[in-house]
Amino acid sequence: MKHIFHIVFVMSFLLLNAPTQAEESVKKARWYQINLTFFQQKPDSSLNEAFAFEELQLEMADALQLHTDAQFTLATTGMNAVMALHHENSNGQAFIEQDINDDWNQIIGKLDPVNQPILHNVQWVQPVYGDQHSLPVYFESSVQTLGQPKLKGLIEIHVSRYLHSDFQLQYIPKQARSLSETISLRQKRRMRSKEIHYLDHPYVAALIRIIPVEHPLNKKLEEEAENTEVNSVLNERI
After folding, report:
1. Residue 130: CB partners within 8 Å, gap ≥ 6?
2. Alpha-carbon gap, residue 146 to 33, rounded angstroms
């Protein structure tokens, strides 16, 4: 009987603490700033056979879409409860489009505007989790072809020993006469932070850089500590 009671107690303890442990692992996630620029390649009639052009269906079930401000409903973002709570605690700073940094503008300014026109250029910050908690981010170009975004896709970033990125893209080439000529591609990369990585394809290419940034919760704790210290000093003076 004691043995059964012990098993029940242990199972109850594990069940009660599982969400807390999951929440803690999410709260300890590393935060990064992502710069991502897609640009069109100069047309090449001799396509490399290594590139696959089979149709690729974008896996949109859990996808997040970048927003231009922090005013959006978490219930519609695809976040699970633990991540949604973490997002709120982080002052809603994740997955919000930012102004492009000057240094990145200088980098992409070297692209040839005629042969390498920019299709999509974006910057944001986000927590990066292990593969289990990672979520894909959806993007699409404002440039359209045949009534559809010329480029759309998903990027998913997770971290283990290294940073890993997974791109799923759909691209409508200039000469396409129907949507059935949409080109699909998927590329996975192991990355190092602060380095510029180049994704190559005969039709479309990308530059991506991932930079570590301070965890928003650390900033929040520092601000609270500063406020507490000021209040304490004022109280002593009174």
Report:
1. 25, 158, 159, 160
2. 33
Buried b (16+ CB within 10 A) or exposed e, 63-83: bbebeeeeeeeeeebbbeebb
End-to-end CA distance of the chain: 62
CA-CA distance, 31 to 25, in Å (whole number)? 13
Q: Which residues contact 174 (CB under 8 A, 6 or more apart)?
A: 43, 145
H helix runs in the chain, sequence order: 2-27, 81-89, 102-108, 216-237
Q: Would the pTM of this model clear 0.85, i.e. be above it?
A: no
For residue 180, what is the DSSP state? Answer: G
Report the distance separating Cα 167 and Cα 194, nearest Å: 19
pLDDT digits (tens, 9 = 90+) for 17-69: 444 554 555 556 789 999 999 999 876 655 544 444 456 677 777 788 888 77
**Are 142 and 129 in contact, with CB atoms under 8 Å apart?**
no
Q: Show me where the domains of the chain are located.
A: 29-227
> Please, which residues bridge with residue 211 across strands?
33
